[in-house]
């Protein structure tokens, strides 16, 4: 489709992987290959011994993972983010003995997409800013720093000397994403063949709901500006300021931040990784409970690790602004989960209109909710385990399949928080971060004073700015 609408600009079909029909043909071919490998594996399983059967299944799943990467890497936007999410968390899709190799294959999606030629990027920038690049920027590096799902990032310098990065949306990407919704159905069928327990319908619904936000860079710039204000001069969190005067629907200009990528910090000493894990937990979980801004995309590519120990956070397209009432419900539901109060948790969900007041739904919902949030409530030093995301997904999918849950629609803040928590545990698990996670959670669940050094630094920073909203909790229930 891109090639059809932009032939005069260097043949964008090659840059955004051609039209929907060509991509659909490619995906159909991939799916056919997966089916053929499955048929071959079935023949072996019927005729070979147990070791041969297991080896055949393992080979098929690894090849299917490679096919899955090919499908999602060939798409842009929210569709590619599905693949990136699969690479960031361990959903237990394959047997344990081949899981590292499987995740390594999926991890290639974290490296982003192939960049498009600078001539196409120049056209977008100059159209949106209504000015030639030299009139706006003193310098503009034609080689991108990174290429992501719907845009790429270039380093530049303003005429006043300010070092910035320019995030530019790929030309025609909106049309490509909407066209790829048809292809996504084929891609999700392929995913279902590898992991039958995955709720692909829920994934498709999430993508449809988020497409408009993903494509609106002005909205993302506004989100980032709000977050940058909250964290300006914070002791260990950096959110780059945006240059709002130069932000448009397809262009975001923000301060340049130099730091290491996630892959470069995974081998740091344990104490350093534990510290980074606490920073990630505080930014993605504790932070929203205090300042009411929830970023639901803890992706490995959305943070930079600075040499001075701070962490810079990027990408605020998947975002939710919370009200006091919404925060109160999140806190109360987690406190009920911490107490093991299944009936109390159901009462809260019923109050939100998400479920009918059926007592038989209490225990299944509690087990699913606890599977996702329970690790935040462990009162002992625990190393984050990325494989627990498989249990989170299994419990949630199992619950959704039970009678009475077919019409469950959780409020947006619960959905975004659940997604954030699942992705966060994947990140912490890859870091091998250890902490007494309840020590951190007590601050927003019960309003307790922080007991870690980072917590004390953050409390001093936020003093007088943002208070937690917490329900009344008697001392005995905290033990």
Automatic annotation (TrEMBL):
<feature type="domain" description="ABC1 atypical kinase-like">
    <location>
        <begin position="109"/>
        <end position="346"/>
    </location>
</feature>
<keyword id="KW-0808">Transferase</keyword>
<dbReference type="GO" id="GO:0016740">
    <property type="term" value="F:transferase activity"/>
</dbReference>
<comment type="similarity">
    <text>Belongs to the protein kinase superfamily. ADCK protein kinase family.</text>
</comment>
<dbReference type="InterPro" id="IPR034646">
    <property type="entry name" value="ADCK3_dom"/>
</dbReference>
<dbReference type="Pfam" id="PF03109">
    <property type="entry name" value="ABC1"/>
</dbReference>
<keyword id="KW-0547">Nucleotide-binding</keyword>
<dbReference type="InterPro" id="IPR011009">
    <property type="entry name" value="Kinase-like_dom_sf"/>
</dbReference>
<protein>
    <submittedName>
        <fullName>ATP-binding protein</fullName>
    </submittedName>
</protein>
<dbReference type="GO" id="GO:0005524">
    <property type="term" value="F:ATP binding"/>
</dbReference>
<dbReference type="InterPro" id="IPR051409">
    <property type="entry name" value="Atypical_kinase_ADCK"/>
</dbReference>
<dbReference type="InterPro" id="IPR004147">
    <property type="entry name" value="ABC1_dom"/>
</dbReference>
<keyword id="KW-0067">ATP-binding</keyword>
